[in-house]
Amino acid sequence: MQPKGYEQLTPARLDATFAALADPTRRAILARLASGEASVTELAEPFAISQPAISKHLKVLERAGLISRGRDAQRRPRRLEAKPLAEATEWLERYRRVLEGNFQRLDALLDELKITEKKHGRSKH
Amino acid sequence: MKNTGTLKVTMPTDREIVLTRVFDAPRHLVFDAFTKPELLKRWFGPHGWSLALCEVDLRVGGTFRFVLRRPDGTEMGMRGVYREITPPESSVHMESFDDYPGESQVSTALVERGGQTTLTATVLYPAKEVRDAVINSGMEHGAAESYDKLAELLPSIPARENSEDAA
Fold it and tell me: Is the sign of the CA dihedral B67, B68, B69, B75 positive or negative?
């Protein structure tokens, strides 16, 4: 059973984005594409894995909408698509803000505990 | 400025969340705040929620039980067991939510430097779906919280004349 709100807050695309990002090679590919489009051969260069393996990673990234293919039919360069990444970042940022609110209450409590300890001292270990 | 908001949230893998946060206090106080019920009751849970029940048996193999009450009165229970405890520097516990299947492992490390403590909590979820569901349940409330704040702010706006001119 899914909790209320799960469906609309985690659309399939967000799932695909996080699944695609959960791999170091794919993150490295995205980092490379952040500095400009590149062909499959260019993308495979820095990695110690075969071109078919790179192509598999590219398929995952493409399905997640994180990359697309450029117009040049010969090179078929891949380029970064910013929107899904921005959505994933926003999702995480909302979660971060909720937790940060929680921890700000802890900050206030810790300030109080520090004052209490100064007044009454503490047994050192 | 009251707080600069130093919390970092990362997802190194499909099933993990890592939280990093600096507190302006020595780590024995942070450790106490995370493990003593009378202190947990004062801060744990999203804004507007309360810890209706908080029981902690702080020893290896000991259990804890929290019941969080939402502003609408509904409750969310969680329970767990401590696997490792090294006060005041680290702990590992398992935890599960009454409403979600599966158990998560939470590894907490506290590092003190110059009177400040850095908390690093790594949560390993049994499945990606549980991770997402837990995050979303917190955010549903997060949205409501923003509306609450807006509601608090609105009545004060007409009273503040020329507020746009204020530097």
Answer: negative
Q: Residue B54: which residues within 8 A CB-CB, separation 6 or more? A: B37, B40, B41, B44, B64, B65, B66, B67
Residue B49 placed within a domain: yes
* pTM for the structure as a whole: 0.66
Residue ranges of domains in chain A: 11-120
Q: Find the domain containing B148 and state its range.
A: 8-155
CA distance A91 to A105: 23
In tens digits, chain A (125 residues) has pLDDT values of: 334 333 334 556 677 777 787 788 888 888 888 778 899 888 888 888 888 899 999 999 998 888 999 887 788 899 988 777 777 777 777 778 888 888 999 999 999 999 999 888 775 44
Domain presence at residue B164: no
Cβ neighbors of A36 (< 8 A, separation 6 or more) are A79
CATH class of A11-120: mainly alpha
Are the beta carbons of A103 and B25 separated by less than 8 Å?
Answer: no
Spatial CA neighbour of B120 closest among B44, B17, B36, B28: B17
Q: Which residue has the tokens 């009251």?
A: B2
Q: What's the structural domain count of chain B?
A: 1
Distance of alpha carbon A118 from alpha carbon A114, whole angstroms: 6
Closest-CA distance of chain B to residue A75, Å: 32
Cβ-Cβ contacts under 8 Å between A and B: the total is 104
CATH of the domain at B61: 3.30.530.20
Of the candidates A30, A105, A12, A111, the residue with the CA atom closest to the CA atom of residue B43: A105
Better pLDDT: B1 or B105: B105
Query: Is residue B160 assigned to a domain?
Result: no
| Residue B42 placed within a domain | yes
Query: Are A98 and B11 in contact (CB < 8 Å)?
Result: no
